[in-house]
Amino acid sequence: MNQWKNKRQLILAIESSCDETSVAVIEQGNKILSNIIATQIESHKRFGGVVPEVASRHHVEIITNCIELALSEADVTPDDLSAVAVTYGPGLVGALLIGLTAAKAFAWAHHLPLIPVNHMAGHIQAVKFDAEIKYPALALVVSGGHTELVYMTSATSFEIIGETRDDAVGEAYDKVGRVLGLDYPSGKIIDELALNHQGTINFPRAMLNEDNLDFSFSGLKSAVINYLHNQKQKGQTYEIGDVAASFQDAVVEVLVAKTLKAIAHYDVQTLIVAGGVAANQGLRQDLSQKMAAQYPEITILTPALRLCGDNAAMIGAAAYDLFADSQTNLALTAKPSLTLA
Ligand code: KG4
Ligand code: ZN
Questions:
Q1: Do 100 and 86 touch, CB atoms closer than 8 A?
Q2: Taking a C-beta distance cutoff of 8 angstroms, is the pair 111, 41 a contact?
């Protein structure tokens, strides 16, 4: 059982699971002293997606600088810290290993406990910077690699009660964006187009009426591709904004309906929406309207927009709850396919 070294309970957190190198200093699990996020998006854009080898190289180049910057911005020295936290999965193995190696070296050199953190638990705990989570909680976790409904009775107990059977929702946004000729990542661009256009095309709502909490987005992606192909073959034009709005309508309707279905079956005090796609304005609006009408007693927590994407602050927040039982295991390795439960 670890004891906090000092009252400030400072954790240095490191995140490198995909295309952001991020290092943060977090106080008492819910206060951000620094949160350095070095994004690699410009390097991956021209390939239309993240190239794992390129991601690893960027992480190696910049991780040490990010650690130094996070400490100096927080105005702390390694002696002030109580622990080091690091994402060990899920994610790209090469990318994870860079953050993991840096975290292990730092923890060893400064005699600090090392706390391994699941990236998805980090996304969920990102809401802690604004409010306390009351359990039991339901988390709709929507990112580039995941689409899950997670039931939680405490900060460290997870039950996956629904998940995608194929593509993750963020992945569908990025693939549809690609066929629409939009930059990678396309989620934010599609969201902005959708807000100013009409959903005039009726794309399929997969698994909407099925008696389960699972999702499927690959059919929707194919439906959009087929629609564009048919229009071109017929020599007809289409408005990109209307396609974006129609696609987003289909995504949001299914995400919201399945979340409400989960709430009807489980005892829930807090609804958390987390992950990169939690930044989606259409999803936030529709979910809060329907929740206010049907479940006004349930609190909805979404991370601040800048904390929806990958960042180390959320890893520090999740690590706080794991501190007491953590041990410095220098044999810790990356788990690219790590799950919550
Ligand atoms: O959580 P995240 O930063 O990385 C992963 O762990 O995957 O999520 C990135 C995903 C990308 O697919 C991106 O297109 C999507 O989140 N995204 C959005 C929005 N902002 C980012 N999708 C829909 N609407 C947005 N506003
Ligand atoms: Zn993520």
A1: yes
A2: no
Whether 93 contacts 294, CB under 8 Å: no
**Neighbour count for residue 80 (Cβ, 10 Å):** 17
* Predicted pLDDT at 120: 98
pLDDT value of residue 202:
97
- Beta bridge partner(s), residue 85: 13, 115
The ligand 1 atom nearest the CA atom of 170: 12
Burial of 311 (0-12, 13-18, 19+ CB in 10 A): buried
pLDDT of residue 260: 98
The answer to whether the CB of 18 is under 6 A from ligand 1 is: yes
Please give the pLDDT value at position 327.
77
Residues in the chain predicted with pLDDT less than 50, given as ranges, are none
Query: Whole-number mean pLDDT of the chain?
Result: 96
Choose which residue among 173, 186, 302 to substitute to test ligand 1 binding: the one with the highest number of ligand atoms within 8 A of its C-beta: 173
Tell me how far CA of residue 202 lies from CA of 62, 198, 220, in angstroms: 45, 11, 10
pLDDT of amino acid 326: 80
Give the pLDDT score at 192: 98
User: Is ligand 1 within 6 A of the CB of residue 280?
Assistant: yes
Give the pLDDT of residue 329: 85
CA of 324 to the centre of ligand 2 (A): 25
CB of 303 within 6 A of ligand 1: the answer is: no
- Asked if 159 contacts 266 with a C-beta cutoff of 8 angstroms, the reply is no
